[in-house]
Design goal:
By secondary structure, the protein is of the alpha+beta class. The protein contains 30 helices and 19 strands. A 5-stranded antiparallel beta sheet has the order 12-13-17-16-15, with no helix packed on it. Strands 4-1-8-7 form a 4-stranded antiparallel beta sheet, with no helix packed on it. Strand 12 (about 125-135) and strand 13 form a beta hairpin. Helix 13 runs antiparallel to helix 14, helix 21 packs antiparallel against helix 22 and helix 25 packs antiparallel against helix 26 (about 665-680). The protein is elongated. Residues about 1-25, about 205-210, about 740-745 and about 750-765 have low confidence and may be disordered.
Length: about 775
């Protein structure tokens, strides 16, 4: 897979200690044969300059940190990494002149894969000798093809089963992963093929076309590629090297060890090594690459709290940094759409990563791109990773996103039955959602199907999200107790997310309070649900409504004391002064019903709003009336009458008349009822039941007070307006004319018969407020 050379954008920022410059005054002069070539590449934390048949003519000009090695007739010079790119080399009559940095960009050559012959052809003008040098990173061998004149190099890394072609500034560098790999000068450049004559093929496969935005992705980290065995060998060599030198000299070995661990996808181990590097070589640990590697290791290890460096300046603006910033955000729970820009910029970088790391990242990146609506880029990435089974879910998601619903359902079904438990659970959820969207099933069936496989995955955000979705579907289906129970289980299972989940629980309870939903829930179910989740009761009108319904259902279960206790608890926990006052009235009404006036007054006192908070007029009237009722429950009728007289209004006057009647003050009771009737009963037309009852109460009071004039007035004005029925009969008995002759005897007999039934018919009429 291609990998770019270190770009200028990846140089350390001003905040990080710069590497030692590779600028070389005075210049180095290398004597060489007329046809001798040269190669320049970066490896093992240094720039390598390879000259077959070369000899250093100016050893005194070697800069600090530079080394020279002669192996056979091959001269190898290693120079410190500089900020301005690879060292500049020029061909002269005497040989090679090395001086300064910042070469003009090398002409990148592209390998030509010849699958039938099993060979790789790399065009290169001026191809010279191929030499072998020891690779400091893997402990194996590098095949280095040198060039005489043309400044041609490989800009992108390409990995094959038996070898890798590495990036270079000049020449061709091949990392052999098998003993049966050779490189020779041939054709119009170099040919990579089998080393043994009997083996005439290498394992090559044509690479997919790499889109420009992928090929040009900029990176900071220089991670080694190779097969698993080769990377493990590298790791062993780096660990041995670190153990063989003093602590202050281990920085480079530690960094190489961490690079290899990241290539293997081992975030926890890489983070541990980077912490050792920070303690042993703080200067090196603050370079741009080291800082990024530390954050990358933290993200891979699911320790995103240790990856805060990704949010700080100094890491540059490369595509690779954008990739890991978006991955960190996704791990923190942000939605793919929220990081779409950074994700789109950084996603192509995964194609340049070693296989193990790419397999870990590709599913996360591609699935997030699809969820963010970036299907074109996701498609390009999928096209370049056709043989990666880890991308099965992403491919199914792409089908769904592009409208291939039948294909997506079939792909999800296959994943559900697969061995990967995580993909099975995620595919099952997406399959259920797809069935719901296509109306194959409804919310209740969708919730049942999700809950059926809930036990298949436990303990992380996936389980939490599924529980939230089940609760949402149960709520949509009208099964609020089940939705609330599911969210309560989630709160108990995920205490770190309790605040967020409790908010969702409150939202479900608010929906339950609307449109009479709670009224349809059986009393026992509703009571147990409310008592279990009192901490999530919504504030405001919805909370008051639920509390009142709870009280009604408890009273219906003949549990008034329990209803009062629950209301008291809810009232004291309320922070809304108005709703607290409403709850206080409801609690007082229950206490009054139970005959405990003192407790009712105490409830009203505890729910008085603080100074400066005004209550709605209707609520003030209700609380004042409750106070009067509480005084009556205490037996303090005189105080109640004073409160009712001050309050006024229809309800107060009705209760006041009842109280006066109970005290035997029929005349004043009649006057109060007369005033109430004048305000509420129309002058003409048929009387409704409430009007008939009020007139009957007034007639009883007049009869008990011996007020014949009032009785006659009631008979004359309203007798004909009474519809037939028990109340009409009793009214006519009370307001009947006196017996004046024998002709009135039949009427008297009928009135006597009605009078005998009057006590049962009145049924405590005078007690009604």
């Amino acid at each position: 897979m291609p990998r770019t050379m270190r770009s200028p954008s990846s140089a350390p920022s001003q905040e990080t200690p710069p590497r030692q410059s590779a600028t070389l005054p005075p210049p180095l002069i290398v004597k060489a044969e007329d046809d001798g070539g040269a190669a320049v590449f970066e490896r093992g934390g240094a720039y390598w300059l390879v000259f077959p048949g070369g000899r250093l003519d100016t050893p005194a000009a070697l800069p600090p940190g530079g080394t020279v090695q002669n192996t056979g007739d091959t001269l190898t010079i290693r120079l410190p990494l500089g900020n301005s790119g690879a060292p500049n080399i020029l061909r002269t009559q005497a040989g090679w002149r090395i001086g300064g940095t910042g070469n003009a960009p090398a002409l990148a050559v592209a390998p030509q894969i010849d699958v039938p012959s099993g060979r790789l052809n790399i065009p290169a003008v001026g191809a010279s000798r191929v030499v072998v040098v020891a690779d400091p990173e893997t402990g194996g061998n590098l095949l280095v093809g040198t060039l005489r004149n043309a400044a041609s190099g490989i800009s992108l890394r390409r990995d094959f089963a038996q070898f890798s072609v590495l990036p270079s500034a000049r020449g061709v560098v091949v990392l052999a992963l098998s003993d049966n790999v050779s490189m020779r000068v041939g054709g119009n450049g170099f040919v990579i093929g089998p080393a043994m004559p009997g083996d005439n093929r290498l394992a090559l496969s044509p690479e997919a076309e790499v889109p420009d935005e992928i090929a040009e992705a900029t990176r900071v980290m220089d991670l080694p590629h190779g097969e698993l065995d080769g990377l493990l060998a590298q790791l062993k060599n780096h660990l041995a090297e670190a153990a063989s030198v003093p602590p202050l000299a281990r920085g480079s070995s530690r960094l190489n060890t961490a690079r290899t661990l990241l290539s293997l996808g081992l975030g926890v181990e890489a983070q541990a090594v980077m912490r050792l590097l920070a303690s042993e070589d703080p200067h090196l640990a603050q370079t741009q690459e080291a800082r990024l590697m530390s954050s990358v290791a933290a993200v891979l290890a699911d320790r995103v709290e240790d990856a805060d460096d990704l949010t700080k300046p100094g890491l540059g603006t490369s595509d690779e940094v954008a990739l890991w910033q978006s991955l960190r955000a996704l791990r923190l729970g942000q939605k793919p759409a929220d990081v779409a820009t950074a994700l789109q910029a950084g996603a192509p970088v995964i194609l340049a990563y070693p296989d193990n790391l790419r397999r870990r990242l590709a599913p996360v990146v591609v699935e997030a791109l699809i969820d963010a609506g970036q299907q074109p880029l996701a498609h390009k990435l999928l096209s370049n990773m056709r043989n990666m089974p880890e991308l099965g879910l992403a491919r199914a998601m792409e089908m769904e996103a592009t409208g291939d619903i039948a294909g997506a359902m079939a792909a999800y079904d296959a994943l559900v039955l697969g061995r990967d438990r995580l993909n099975s659970v995620r595919a099952w959820r997406r399959l259920v959602e797809l069935r719901l969207t296509s109306r194959e099933i409804g919310p209740r069936e969708a919730a049942d199907q999700l809950e059926m496989r809930l036990a298949a995955w436990r303990g992380d955000a996936i389980e939490r999200d599924i529980r939230e979705r089940i609760a949402e579907l149960r709520s949509q289906a009208g099964n609020f107790p089940a939705a609330i129970a599911m969210l309560r289980e989630a709160i108990d299972a995920f205490p770190d997310d309790a605040a967020m989940l409790r908010g969702k629980l409150t939202a479900v309870m608010t929906a339950m309070a609307a449109d009479g939903q709670a009224d349809r829930i059986p009393p026992m179910v509703f009571v147990s649900t409310m008592e279990r989740n009192a901490d999530a009761l919504p504030s405001g009108e919805a909370g008051t409504r639920l509390a009142n319904i709870l009280a009604d259902k408890l009273i219906a279960l003949d549990l008034p004391a329990r209803a009062a206790a629950v209301l008291d608890q809810i009232m004291q926990g309320s922070t809304d002064s108005v709703e607290r006052a409403r709850l206080g009235v409801r609690l007082a009404e229950i206490q009054i019903h139970e005959g405990d006036g003192a407790a009712a007054l105490a409830a009203l006192a505890k729910s008085v709003p603080p100074a400066g908070v005004s209550l709605p007029e209707e609520l003030q009237q209700t609380r004042a009336l409750a106070s009067a009722k509480a005084e009556l429950a205490r037996g303090n009728r005189e105080r109640a009458l004073v409160l009712l007289a001050e309050l006024g209004g229809d309800a107060a006057d009705s209760l006041r008349a009842t109280t006066l009647a109970q005290m035997g003050n029929w005349k004043e009771a009649g006057e109060v009822l007369a005033g109430l009737a004048a305000r509420t009963i129309p002058a003409s037309g048929t009387l409704d039941e409430n009007a008939r009852r009020l007139l009957l109460r007034q007639a009883v009071a007049a009869a008990m007070a011996g007020d014949s004039a009032t009785l006659q007035q009631l008979r004359d004005q309203n007798g004909s307006r009474f519809a037939d029925g028990p109340l009409s009969d009793i009214f006519h008995v009370l307001t009947a004319k006196d017996i004046n002759s024998l002709a009135d005897l039949p009427r008297l007999a009928r009135e006597i018969e009605l009078a005998r039934a009057a006590p049962d018919a009145l049924g405590g009429l005078l007690q009604r407020p």
